[in-house]
Amino acid sequence: MKFVIRAVLIALILTPSVFAQKLVDPTKVAPEYREAAEKRRAEQIRQNECAHKADVEKVVPRDRTAFLVHCLDADAAK
What we know:
Layout (H helix, E strand, L loop, with lengths): L1 H13 L19 H23 L4 H17 L1
Helix pairs in contact: 2-3
Protein backbone atom coordinates (compact mmCIF):
# COMPACT_ATOMS: atom_id res chain seq x y z
CA MET A 1 0.00 0.00 0.00
CA LYS A 2 2.83 2.41 0.85
CA PHE A 3 4.42 1.66 -2.52
CA VAL A 4 1.23 2.61 -4.35
CA ILE A 5 0.90 5.87 -2.43
CA ARG A 6 4.54 6.75 -3.11
CA ALA A 7 4.16 5.91 -6.79
CA VAL A 8 1.07 8.11 -7.08
CA LEU A 9 2.80 11.02 -5.31
CA ILE A 10 5.85 10.75 -7.55
CA ALA A 11 3.63 10.62 -10.63
CA LEU A 12 1.77 13.74 -9.50
CA ILE A 13 4.99 15.61 -8.78
CA LEU A 14 6.51 14.76 -12.16
CA THR A 15 3.35 15.55 -14.14
CA PRO A 16 3.46 19.00 -15.77
CA SER A 17 0.55 21.36 -15.34
CA VAL A 18 -1.73 20.68 -18.31
CA PHE A 19 -4.85 22.40 -17.07
CA ALA A 20 -3.96 25.89 -18.23
CA GLN A 21 -5.34 26.84 -21.60
CA LYS A 22 -2.69 28.24 -23.89
CA LEU A 23 -3.19 31.33 -25.99
CA VAL A 24 -3.90 30.63 -29.63
CA ASP A 25 -0.99 31.54 -31.89
CA PRO A 26 -2.45 32.74 -35.23
CA THR A 27 0.89 32.27 -36.99
CA LYS A 28 0.78 28.52 -36.38
CA VAL A 29 -2.66 28.06 -37.91
CA ALA A 30 -3.48 27.36 -41.53
CA PRO A 31 -4.05 30.60 -43.49
CA GLU A 32 -7.75 29.94 -44.00
CA TYR A 33 -8.27 29.76 -40.21
CA ARG A 34 -5.98 32.65 -39.26
CA GLU A 35 -8.77 35.24 -38.92
CA ALA A 36 -10.72 33.01 -36.54
CA ALA A 37 -7.55 32.32 -34.56
CA GLU A 38 -6.88 36.05 -34.22
CA LYS A 39 -10.42 36.61 -32.92
CA ARG A 40 -10.05 33.72 -30.47
CA ARG A 41 -6.73 35.10 -29.22
CA ALA A 42 -8.27 38.54 -28.68
CA GLU A 43 -11.11 36.92 -26.71
CA GLN A 44 -8.65 34.92 -24.61
CA ILE A 45 -6.67 38.07 -23.83
CA ARG A 46 -9.86 39.88 -22.74
CA GLN A 47 -10.78 36.93 -20.51
CA ASN A 48 -7.30 36.86 -18.98
CA GLU A 49 -7.42 40.62 -18.30
CA CYS A 50 -10.80 40.30 -16.57
CA ALA A 51 -9.53 37.36 -14.52
CA HIS A 52 -6.52 39.45 -13.50
CA LYS A 53 -8.82 42.31 -12.48
CA ALA A 54 -10.82 39.86 -10.35
CA ASP A 55 -7.61 38.68 -8.69
CA VAL A 56 -6.47 42.25 -8.01
CA GLU A 57 -9.84 43.21 -6.55
CA LYS A 58 -9.90 39.96 -4.53
CA VAL A 59 -13.35 38.93 -5.71
CA VAL A 60 -14.69 36.01 -3.68
CA PRO A 61 -15.23 32.76 -5.64
CA ARG A 62 -19.02 32.89 -5.41
CA ASP A 63 -19.08 36.34 -7.05
CA ARG A 64 -16.27 35.71 -9.54
CA THR A 65 -18.46 34.48 -12.40
CA ALA A 66 -20.77 37.48 -12.17
CA PHE A 67 -17.75 39.79 -12.00
CA LEU A 68 -16.17 38.18 -15.08
CA VAL A 69 -19.41 38.31 -17.09
CA HIS A 70 -19.91 41.98 -16.17
CA CYS A 71 -16.28 42.76 -17.03
CA LEU A 72 -16.52 41.04 -20.42
CA ASP A 73 -19.85 42.76 -21.19
CA ALA A 74 -18.40 46.17 -20.28
CA ASP A 75 -15.34 45.44 -22.41
CA ALA A 76 -17.51 44.42 -25.36
CA ALA A 77 -19.57 47.62 -25.04
CA LYS A 78 -16.47 49.76 -25.57
